[in-house]
Write a structure and sequence with these properties.
The structure holds 2 protein chains of 2 kinds.
Chain A (H helix, E strand, L loop, with lengths): L20 H17 L6 H16 L4 H25 L3 E6 L2 E6 H26 L2 H10 L4 H31 L6 H32 L16 H25 L1
Antiparallel strand pairs in A: 1-2
Helix pairs in contact in A: 1-4, 1-8, 2-4, 2-8, 3-4, 5-6
Chain B lengths: L4 E9 L5 E10 L4 E5 L6 H8 L6 E6 L2 E2 L5 H5 L2 E4 L3 H4 L5 H11 L4 H14 L15 H13 L5 E5 L7 H12 L4 E6 L2 H7 L2 E6 L2 E7 H5 L2 H6 L20
Parallel strand pairs in B: 3-8, 3-9, 6-7, 7-8
Antiparallel strand pairs in B: 1-2, 1-4, 4-5, 9-10
Chain lengths: ~260, ~250
Amino acid sequence: MHHAYIDKFAYQDSPIHCLDARIKFLVTVVFTAVVISLPRTSVSILFCYAVGPFVVLVMGGIPLRFVLKHILYVSPFVLVLALTSPWYDRTAATIVFGPWIWHTTVGWLRCWSILCKFVVTMLALIALISTTRFANLLAGLQRLGVPRLLVIQMGFLYRYIFLLIDSAHHILRARAARSAGGVAFGRGAKFAAAMVGSLFVRSIDTAEHINSAMQARGFDGNWRTINRLQVCVVDYVFVVIAVSFILGLYFFVKPLLG
Amino acid sequence: MVKAIEVENFSYKYPDGTIALNGITLDVEYGERLALIGPNGAGKSTLLLAITGFVRGTGRVVIDGMEITNGNLKKVRSRIGCCLENPEDQLFMPTLFDDVAFGPLNMGLDSQQVKERVNLALAEVGLAGMAERAPHHLSAGQKRAAAIATVLSMSPKIITLDEPDGSLDPRNRDNLVKLLAGLSQTLVIATCNMDFAAAVSDKAAVIDGGRVIAAGPAEQIMSDSKLMTSHGLEVPRKFINGYSATGFSG
């Protein structure tokens, strides 16, 4: 079965793809932290910040359609949060942008701020995931000191989540093939419970097989890997450019835009 | 004289009391290619698990001169590699390199040695240059070959393969036959596919009801139509008189 893997563009070849996973991860974290920490009324500066990940995505050859699709996938959660803001805070506010003046409320400003911050940080996250192989990202996280157990769990999750989804699809297809004319709600709920149970048992079965495969290859509880990541001059250049961009906007452009 | 595998009167019951293996006695010489053939539920996979020390029952299992005990499992498993039925279970790391390197790293080899072993193993199974690929980006045939590479990188003397031809199309199965033919290790292959068994083995053992019914040279065992049909098996095309096989070049 075909799956839209989140790192499907990570195997391309571009200057961005060649950068060290640790560097890209750290820059993304700093970028996200700075964007989130911006005052809720600083909406215009967010458009400037969006330029950074946008350039990375273009240089990495990531189709914008793919990016927008993934932003839309997770947008419902943020939309609920953002669209309720105007109801909570109706304090009047005025926006002055050159000769133009708008009268609105702080709630609406917060709503736009949440949406813009969401889009900008998602752009950065997608830029990271789409230009970094998941294996390298995991290796990078491990080298950065993220607990090994967490990294291993993420690796297993990424490796096996699609197999689990496949199993679920097969069960659903088997049900559809035998449920002519639809299924009553009660029976549907019963089926859902049975499916979850079946998937749970299969997961345990798979886990036991993986454990056997690991033990057969001498696993003794110590997770050993080879570090194949290397920071080069290009990575340092990228850090300088990225940090200059992030801090330059924060300290020099933000005060101008207000 | 030491044999690659010696199983003496080995019996095993599942936790629910069902007898899986009942007094199995079997020898495999170094360099032999043994096909374990038998109907579904005969006990072939359980026997492979017993040989690799995952199932412990009564009787003896001796691998490369070492009787399997709780104390020497790690040493035994450095000499016998096992390929599970489903390669998805065997390939659990994010990249092919990490998967093939997993065993050598656990053996305590240094980085350089591990890299050399990984490159050699991948080249041997025809996956050279694919070390950075994620397992989920491989085809079924490539996954099977990769699973064998994960074992080859540990340079074992013996390799067990459980239904290695499962869900492979004829071309990939033919490639697998060629790959197995090129290996120098002692092989124990459990399969229900008689044509495949005939192509990859020089010795065969019929297993049914947890017992070894017959063991001997592959042609002698697998061309005995009475023996084969009485245990739900069939004579491979290779051993049918006058049949000109076109498949399985192994």
